[in-house]
Specification:
heterodimer, A: about 575 residues, 4-stranded antiparallel β-sheet, B: about 525 residues, 5-stranded antiparallel β-sheet, 14 helices
């Protein structure tokens, strides 16, 4: 050691002593009991990990040297995502108040610098230089926001033809994934223009990541086959539902090539072990990909040869987000329902420990039901959860051949469960008079699991009844459209739930001859992608143009326009 | 071979100890209850068969069957008489009379019931079969690739009069527990099984998943025995085979190593088949293969339509697979965009053995221009058989649907239930393909011919010249065939698989075109 360095050290010695004394005296921070439900993580610098509690609306700071929480600050009533801005400030998305917040960090404290009201609901933030992009779920748009040290300014809102969730900035482009279905859009950031929207044979896309060489785009998602049946055998052999990590050629994604699957590789996440609902993925510096199997609480590794580690690491209850330190020594995983952060050694492929967030309070039936809703362990061999098809309580928009209508052979559209508590009877043919019956049927027959306990059914039902319909995409006034609706549609789709308790024959028999259906609720209709029991109408307009649904004679184009305008406000 | 044996054994399990109506309680059944059961079968046929005969026809079949054992009886005018009967009661009355008359001709009520049901089903198209509860359970296990056992094939050793382990399956627990092919089983769970019927032995070996069975084993010419305890588990069998088996259940899938062309043979459809293909694709891609021969020259068992559709979906990058008409409605099957062996040139081998669901799959691959069909015209058997549960827990296996091509066009022949080959050969052995009705027409024909009149009935092959068409120009390839004179193959070529050779040749050509 050089003399000058030694002198410098001696000069700071008193300060070191003082700080050491304070550290020795200060009580370590003990997080209070509560329910956080961590859903997003960010590494602020080499020494601190930030994460948010969705349910607590708090931001926590963890010391990565000791792997423990050192501070926690309330920021909002609910939080959906967190990102670190260039200057070290923090951006968080409040998906209850629909706000983007800019917070300044001073040590372990945060102070609000600016907030920005956004359309419904900000669920994901990605930062690039002096701007950030926010996925607005129900508004079906991307907000482009200027970010400075002191302010947030909405620069543009780019509409999308689907509800977005996952975002990834690649050079001058933003890749946007569908929150429910398989759409993948590329937005040109310079021109604020949607360059392409293509559809993968996929749904429940959770996790976009670039390969370490920057040539591949990894997409974690599921697939659902309308040909397979919800039998234990089709579940067991991976015919019904697939849990995938798809590797796409980035050049193809960024190009306008209509064939998104050109040079695509699909690897089944599940080989010999339980996996369901892949929820996050990240690549280590040495090319291994970590995948969170949120439905079964496992972490899998896929190496460069696409060999899957099996069994996966079992350490959490619902891992939903992953971040890896730059030095590749640690991967942090948000275990949402375990209310903890898992610390993983990517080299050794083992769990190093957990960062405890505080004692969990006892759960309400709704909270317990929510955990069951996302739990694939209810299903046959852990292949799927309720969320696998009813993504986040909504719908993946696909067809599934269940025994819910009393027969196989006629796949039906997966119904949204948002608002389902008020729309009985249940099932496409209205055969379930209580939601509890429907829940039992879904778990035991559709998912192939054992008959659920009474308490589980009660909790799941309580959770389903707590789900509100999605907001309408449009708030336009549509008086004439409403009049047309009242005349032609309201008998079966009765306000305010826009359904009724009976079944009706409307000339749309399915493949096994069933012609009477219970009318599905029209609330949140604008947030759906297909119509009728088998998605035979691809647009709302075609419901009336092609099928004259509700009309004895063909409605006029004007009437259709007015009616559709009204329906989009429901 | 192992798998064939396994299936044989499984089928043996299905058949042994089972007759058409073998429940003991039935042996004391009255005539009325016998009639009830006959009409249960008749009603099931009427309800579920896609093209059922009339009730009168089935009763006529039953009545005729009752006469056979006695080799007597006047059946002249019976058809006319039955045609005049219109109500179920009238038919029941007739059947009751005949049953009472025929009672003395049968050794037991059980035998009479068997004849009765056999007679009913003899007039039902599609070779229906009544499976007992026991058979049905095994059928289901096989169909779902969930066969529960210890994974051995048995034969009877006539010298020692003990059952001999003919073979063990690599994925079976007996193999893992150390049981060896050739060993004799002398005791099962402590019971000496000397001279015991094989069917009874199999019954003792079978049991619920997770249960255990203890075997005493010895080598044929030794006296020392050893005991092993084996857990009964699901013994998954492979439904997709490769080019050659290099070791037990380990296949070499390479048909042409220099051109890197793979070969798969779908032996049967099960719910595991698409899964197997997904696994094999990974392996073949890892081995650097880039083109594929898919051999579909075999039929499949009942209840496989669903599994065939899943395989078609796995192999197609979108498009319509086909349509299926049942008694309840019409369903169109669509493939999603994901596709195994994506962008690999593919040739599908078809022939007389390609019928039913395999024919439907081949048609889907042809219609979507996913593959070139190489081989011989197919039979045109477009009816799919499904099990219909019976009240006693068994099943009636019936043709309950008709398969169509994607555009809704039929491919079944004039008599789709017949396995008879289409009339594609004239007396000189020349092809008359244009006169064939039904079935699939290969894009590239490879002729199989019977050697007449030298008395050699073995098939040999001849291959036509490569058609002057590009690989994907299928229509041209097919039409070009009819102008080409076939060549006879004799002598050593007799056992060559000329259809496969032609497919490989076409794929090599295709790969060369791509490389160029």
């Amino acid at each position: 050691m050089k003399l000058a360095h030694l002198c410098g050290l001696i000069r700071f010695l008193p300060w070191l002593v003082i700080f050491s004394s304070i550290a020795a005296i200060a009580e370590p921070y003990v997080p209070p009991a509560g329910l956080r439900r961590p859903v997003a993580l960010a590494l602020a610098d080499n020494d601190s990990l930030l994460f948010i509690g969705n349910r607590s609306g708090t931001i926590s700071i963890a010391d990565t040297a000791q792997d423990r929480v050192v501070a926690e600050s309330a920021a909002a009533s609910r939080l959906a995502d967190i990102a670190v801005h260039n200057g070290g400030n923090i951006l968080v998305a409040d998906d209850e108040a629909n706000q983007l917040l800019l917070l300044a960090r001073r040590g372990t404290k945060f102070s609000k610098v600016a907030s920005l009201q956004l359309p419904e609901h900000p669920v994901k933030i990605r930062v690039s230089k002096d701007e950030c992009f926010v996925a607005l779920l129900w508004a079906r748009a991307i907000a482009v926001v200027d970010v400075s040290d002191r302010a947030l300014k909405l620069r543009a809102t780019t509409p999308l033809p689907f509800a977005p969730r996952e975002l990834l900035v690649v050079n001058e482009s933003l890749i946007v994934a569908d929150a429910f279905g398989g759409n993948l859009a590329v937005v040109d950031l310079a021109r604020r223009k949607v360059e392409s929207v293509r559809t993968l044979p996929a749904h429940n896309i959770r996790g976009l990541a670039l390969s370490s060489d920057g040539k591949r785009l990894y997409v974690a998602h599921q697939t659902l086959s309308p040909i397979a049946r919800t039998t234990p055998d089709d579940i067991r052999w991976g015919n019904l539902i697939g849990n995938h990590v798809r590797s796409l050629a980035l050049n193809t994604v960024l190009s306008l090539d209509p064939d998104l699957l050109n040079d695509s590789e699909v690897s089944l996440l599940r080989v010999v072990d339980n996996a369901a609902d892949p929820a996050a993925l990240a690549e280590t510096a040495d090319g291994n990909v970590l995948i969170a199997s949120s439905g079964t609480g496992q972490i899998f590794f896929v190496d460069e040869m696409q060999q899957l580690s099996s069994p996966g690491l079992q350490g959490g209850r619902r891992p939903t987000a992953i971040t890896i330190t730059k030095d590749n020594t640690r991967a942090y995983v948000a275990d949402t329902f375990g209310d903890q952060i898992l610390v993983i050694d990517p080299d050794m492929r083992r769990i190093r420990g957990q960062i405890a967030l505080g004692a969990r309070r006892s759960l309400t039936p709704i909270e317990r039901g929510e955990e069951l809703f996302y739990d694939a362990r209810l299903s046959h061999q852990g292949w799927l959860s309720c969320h696998s098809c009813h993504t986040d309580g909504h719908s993946n928009g696909l067809l599934s051949d269940t025994f819910g209508d009393g027969s196989f052979g006629a796949p039906k559209r997966v119904l949204s469960l948002l608002g389902v508590g008020e729309t009985g009877p249940w099932g496409w043919n209205g055969s379930f008079t209580t939601l509890e019956e429907q829940v039992q049927q879904s778990i035991h027959s559709t998912m192939g699991g054992p008959v659920p306990a009474h308490e589980d059914i009660a909790s799941l039902t309580a959770y389903l009844k707590s789900l509100k319909p999605p907001p309408a995409l449009s708030i336009a006034s549509a008086t004439r459209g409403q009049q047309i609706f009242n005349k032609h549609c309201a008998e079966c789709h009765q306000p305010s739930t826009y359904t009724s308790g009976r079944t009706y024959e409307v000339g749309l028999a399915d493949e096994v001859g069933t012609a009477r259906f219970n009318p599905p609720s029209l609330r949140g209709l604008s947030q759906r992608a297909g119509f009728f029991h088998d998605n035979r109408a691809k647009t709302l307009e075609s419901v009336f143009i092609e099928f004259q649904h509700g009309f004895e004679t063909a409605p006029s184009p004007d009437d259709i326009t007015e009616l559709v305008t009204f329906l989009r406000t429901l | 071979m192992n798998h064939r044996l396994f299936l044989s054994c499984a089928l043996l399990l299905c058949c042994v100890g089972v007759s058409i109506a073998s429940e003991p309680k039935r042996q004391t059944s009255s005539t009325d209850s016998l009639i009830d059961r006959a009409f249960t079968v008749i009603d099931l046929v009427l309800e579920h068969h896609v093209d059922p005969p009339t009730r009168q026809e089935m009763v006529l079949g039953a009545v005729k069957a009752l006469f056979k054992p006695a080799k007597a009886g006047d059946i002249i005018g019976l058809s006319k008489r039955i045609s005049t009967l219109s109500t179920a009661e009238e038919l029941r009355s007739l059947l009751r009379t005949r049953l009472e008359e025929a009672a003395g001709s049968f050794e037991s009520p059980h035998e009479m019931e068997a004849a009765l049901v056999r007679g009913i089903l003899s007039v039902v198209p599609g070779e229906p079969r009544l499976a007992s509860a026991k058979e049905f359970k095994v059928d289901q296990q096989l169909a779902n690739n969930r066969y529960v056992g210890i994974g051995i094939v048995l034969s009877f050793d006539t010298d020692s009069r003990f059952p001999r382990i003919q073979d063990t399956f690599a994925r079976g627990t007996a193999h893992r527990a150390g049981a060896k092919a050739g060993e004799l089983i002398t005791e099962i769970d402590g019971t000496n099984i000397h001279d015991m019927k094989l069917a009874s032995v199999i019954d003792m070996l079978r049991g619920e998943e997770g249960s255990h069975v203890t075997l005493s084993l010895r080598k044929p010419k030794e006296t020392e025995t050893r005991k092993i305890t084996i857990k009964r588990t699901v013994v998954p069998r492979e439904t997709v085979m490769g080019y050659r088996e290099v070791s037990k259940e380990n296949w070499d899938f390479t048909a042409d190593s220099s051109a890197r062309i793979g070969y798969l043979r779908i032996k049967e459809f099960a719910s595991s088949t698409a899964h197997e293909l997904r696994q094999i694709e990974k392996r073949l891609a890892g081995e650097g293969l880039r083109a594929l021969v898919l051999d579909l020259r075999m039929g499949v068992g009942p209840g496989k339509l669903q599994d065939a559709a899943l395989v078609a979906d796995a192999l197609l990058p979108g498009g319509t697979i086909g349509q299926v008409q049942t008694t309840k409605g019409l369903r169109k099957y669509e493939a999603d965009e994901d596709c195994l062996f994506r962008d690999w040139p593919m040739a599908v081998l078809v022939g007389e053995g390609t019928f039913g669901e395999t024919e439907w799959l081949a048609a889907a691959l042809q219609d979507n221009k996913r593959a070139l069909l190489v081989g011989q015209p197919t039979v045109g058997h477009a009816y799919s058989v499904m099990p219909v549960p019976t009240p006693d827990g068994g099943a009636l296996l019936l043709a309950n649907s008709i398969m169509y091509r994607g555009e809704g066009t039929a491919f079944h022949g004039p008599n789709p239930f017949s396995r008879r080959k289409p009339a594609v050969w004239d007396m000189d052995g020349q092809a008359v393909i244009r006169e064939a009705v039904g079935g699939l027409k290969p894009d590239v024909m490879v002729e199989l011919r019977r050697s007449r009149p030298q008395g050699n009935t073995r098939q040999n092959s001849s291959v036509k010249e490569e058609p002057p068409a590009t690989f994907y120009n299928l229509k041209e390839a097919a039409s070009a065939y009819e102008k080409v004179e076939p060549k006879r193959e004799t002598g050593p070529n007799r056992d060559r698989d000329m259809t496969l050779e032609k497919a490989v040749e076409l794929l090599r050509s295709r790969l060369s075109e791509s490389a160029g």
